[in-house]
Specification:
It is a multi-pass membrane protein. The chain crosses the membrane at residues 33-56, 62-84, 109-127. This is Succinate dehydrogenase cytochrome b556 subunit. InterPro entries: SQR/QFR_C/D (IPR034804), Succ_DH_cyt_bsu_CS (IPR018495), Succ_DH_cytb556 (IPR014314), SuccDH_FuR_B_TM-su (IPR000701). The protein is mainly alpha-helical. The chain has one domain (20-127): Fumarate reductase/succinate dehydrogenase, transmembrane subunit (3 helical TM bundles of succinate and fumarate reductases), CATH 1.20.1300. It has helices spanning 20-51, 53-64, 66-93, 100-127. α1 packs antiparallel against α2. The longest helix is centred in the first third of the chain and has 32 residues, at 20-51. The chain is elongated.
Length: 128
C-alpha cells in the first residue's frame, strides 16, 4: 500500500493566480479569434453594400441597433488591445522588457492604451 501525503496537488486553480503576462497572452489569443469573427461581419456589411439597397439596409439595421453597436464596440476594443499587445511583443522581440516589473508595467500600458484608443475612436466616430 502506497503512503499518502496530505499535501494538495499543484497547482490548484482555486488558489493559484495566473501572472499578468499569462492573462495578457491568453487575452491576445482570444482577441485574435474575436477579430476573425468581426472580419466576417465586416465582409457581410461590404457584400450587402455591393448587393442591393435592401441587403444593405438589413446590415445597417443590425449595426445601427444597440446590440450591433455593442458588438462593434467590443470588436473595436479587441482591435486596439490586439494592436497594443502586438506592439508590446515587438518590443520583446528586441530583447527589452522581460523583467517582471517592466512586463507588468507594459501590460498596464497596453490595457490603458486599448481603452483610451477605443474611447477616442468612438467619440470621434459618433461625432462625425
Amino acid at each position: 500500500m502506497a503512503k499518502t501525503d496530505n499535501r494538495p496537488l499543484s497547482p490548484h486553480l482555486q488558489v493559484y493566480r495566473l501572472p499578468m503576462t499569462a492573462l495578457m497572452s491568453i487575452s491576445h489569443r482570444a482577441t485574435g479569434v474575436v477579430l476573425s469573427v468581426g472580419t466576417l461581419l465586416l465582409a457581410w456589411w461590404l457584400i450587402a453594400a455591393a448587393t442591393s439597397a435592401g441587403a444593405f439596409e438589413t446590415a445597417q439595421g443590425f449595426f445601427g441597433s444597440w446590440f450591433g453597436m455593442l458588438v462593434m464596440f467590443g470588436w473595436t476594443l479587441c482591435l486596439f488591445y490586439h494592436l497594443a499587445n502586438g506592439i508590446r511583443h515587438l518590443v520583446w522581440d528586441t530583447g527589452h522588457g522581460f523583467d517582471i516589473k517592466t512586463a507588468e508595467k507594459m501590460g498596464r500600458i497596453v490595457l490603458v492604451a486599448a481603452v483610451a484608443l477605443t474611447l477616442i475612436a468612438w467619440i470621434i466616430g459618433l461625432a462625425v
